[in-house]
Model the fold of this input.
Amino acid sequence: MAWRFLKFCATASFVATLLTGSFARGASGTATAAPIVLTGADRRPAMSLDGDWATIVDPYFSGLFSFHHEEKKNGWFRNYKAKPDDPFPTEYDFGKAAKLTVPGDWNTQRESLMYYEGPVWYEKDFSYDPKPKTHIFLHVGAANYKSWFWVNGEKVCEHEGGFTSFNCEVTQALHAGGNFVVAAADNTRHEDNVPTLETDWWNYGGLTRDVSLIEVPERFIDQYDLHLSRDEDGVIEGWVHVVGAAQGTSVEVQIPELHARASAEIGAEGRTALHFSVKGLERWSPETPKLYKIVLRAGEDSVDELIGFRTIEVHGTDILLNAKPVFLRGVCIHAEAPYRTGRAYSNKDAETLLGWVKELGGNFARLAHYPHAETMLRAADRMGVMLWSENPVYWAVQFDNPKVLAKAEQQLDEEINTSRNHAAIILWSMANETPNTPARTQFISTLASRARSLDSTRLITAALLVRGQGNTKIVDDPLGNVLDVIGTNEYIGWYEGRPDKADTTQWQIAYEKPLIMSEFGGEAKAGLHGSDKERWTEEYQADIYRHQLPMLNRIAQLRGMSPWILMDFRSPNRPLAGIQDEFNRKGLISEQGKKKQAFYVLQKAYKERTVGNPK
Ligand code: GCU
Done:
């Protein structure tokens, strides 16, 4: 019980500090470090904090803001060990609070929270024995949308962005034995968020992916990049960054299966370049998703990675995978959990969704409209599914607001620096369906340049809107100038005309670049049958696909397609009672796993290779 008493004191004095405003005395006055990005965090030994957390719903965020709406610097939460004569109000009593499971959105865990948008407090006790000369990070797979964290009453970090992982240093805040972590997650939408107020997906809030404690040595590898050279056959190149190590520290990389080993010394800025030849390397591809065990060492730190090696590039209007033209037979995927619904996070969710892509005869998935969980990326590496990963610059974010650009850049950096070693990811998408304005083009051009500077080994794309004049579709959004691969969305047969309008539609593409039809399709309620002239029936949806495919084949530079969407997903924009019931029904499969007729139309085309060129 001793540690609980300690915790009571820690919290009481912490709250006392808070309430009496004498912040200087408590640790609460310390500024918190920004969270860091760890590449391959899931490859580190970790103590999971997943499971039940005590939770308190706080719609007015009075736990963080005073009644004059000043931020309280370190939040306000009652220690639920408070004694009856405790002078402070005990409303915030985690000991009596209901539980939520982490990871997981709160919307689908508690009916009263399905529509909730606002702050929720989380609390969890845990025992820990910190080792000397180690850094301990609180790893958060994702928290939507803004989040704050305290350990033993000391604020350790805050983060904005609902779909990227981050790591808060907690070394100083932890002590041996009993500890507790408090978090606040707030999914309130704001116009200057990324994404902004309006999206066509459910605003699932909370600690939506895994939470754990990761230990690394005093000098540790935080980021690294290893990839196959495009220009030199059989050469692996990249870099490793080490925190806290002296210039000249040696970094070593080993690929045991290839009997390959290389080493180099880090420079003044903690980073070393790597460049070494290997023999007998089997390249990663959807047909042969070969992954190699990699051991990275620097001082007393080591990371065991699993990395596939391939090249991806553009040549004229072709996309070349391992120097050969490839056609991306894909489909879009939202991070909606099959069967249980809600925010997907688990390996099982990932393997179910990507298993359906493989069953479809697909080799590609567009992960819409935000970075998906690490489990999805690892599964795609293993299963051989190429990926389009997307920064959530969706629709009309505030393109003329420098603060919003900074948020989009932060999320792009987190996405790329976390996920840069996944062979499956071949495309970084900058945006989806943004309005063609000078401010937008400048904003996204800045992001595209930043992505290229962070990672020159992948292709840059975005899903553009198309201009329509009668039966001619024109793709000439100026943003296409800064893309390697043009993505464009169209809904002929659903939002525009009937399915047979596709038969007479011509396409004009203003760029001699590969084109991916990044969205098309229509809605159907699984099990609803009727004529193929009746909207919402499976027959109508299938008819859209039957007319789309020959049209797509007439686009000479089409090099991929990702119809919208693999599985029905929850969205507040889809209220049609008895049909949508707050689900967007463009899925080829219902959220309960029921395949619709359109699934089989597309599957036949993919398996018989009757769509897309080069074959
Ligand atoms: C848009 C958008 C999707 C949306 C889809 C639809 O193109 O990119 O996010 O869900 O169309 O209307 O169903």
Q: What stands out?
A: The longest strand covers residues 119-128. The pocket of alpha-D-glucopyranuronic acid is lined by residues 200, 369, 432-433, 489, 519, 564, 584, 586 (CB under 6 Å). Residues 2-20 form the longest helix (19 residues). Confidence is low (pLDDT under 50) at residues 1-30, 78-82.
